[in-house]
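Hi,

Apologies if this is the wrong queue. I'm a grad student, and the batch job for CID domain-containing protein from Gomphillus americanus produced an output file that my downstream script rejects. I'm not sure whether the problem is my script or the file. Here is the sequence I used:
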Amino acid sequence: MPTAEAEAEWDAFEARLKFSTLLGSLSASVAAAQKAARFLMVNKHCGEDLFEVALEWLEKDDMNLRIKIWGIWEELSEMAMREQHVDYINRIRDNIQHFMDNICPPERPIAANIRIVRKGVERMHKLGLFSNTRAKELDEMLKHRTSSSQNPDLDAVEAAHKQDPGEEAHDMKHRWPNAFGDNKPSGAKRPTDKKQIEQRIEEDRERHKRLKESIWQIGNGEHEESDKMWEECSDIDEGDLMAAEDETSEMLGISIDELRRRFPAQTPVAAV
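Support response: The file is valid. Your script probably expects a header line. Output copied below for reference.
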């Protein structure tokens, strides 16, 4: 359920503060990304200011936060395309490579992040945000970064999680001790600890759930069937009203005369 804060329209200064607060407390859930995207749509009159805030937060040295913000771009893409808000559509198109560079930087690519970004780009392409040519360019860019991924520990754990979900945790520790920080020499820097891996897996589950939901999401024509029935249905005549009167009297267990006496205002059929 959208909150009043997410649905309220603010002036540019207040909107920046509110949006910054949203990003500061952003979780990895689908609802959190949708809430932030709705805030952007409601306050689209100051979209340039809000984009600047998001770009500032993307520069922070927190990879998990960057991935969460990427979730906002996915949700915003869908909302902007649905409402045909050209300004946001163009901003996402113009900044997509910048977003990608922050989440999976060329000099330090992480395969798990690349997979998240690739799925997001595919989703945006299906929405019509990118042309086939542009989508192919972005995919080639991600493939190149995948080949130079520099986090084999995390990649190995995620591959095992995907291919053999029933494997015991202690077996995973024996096979990839570095990923969990076990058996590391003192003073050595751990590339990724267990908590980060678990958080990443949970965030991936949320994103997969969001992707599946978007496949079954009803588009703008959700009222087409009811509208068609309304248009094709004949006008209500006296026969329809009398039939309804009969059904009501039978349901209440009273005669039609008694029904008319009790509910004169609700009985438009003239007494015969």
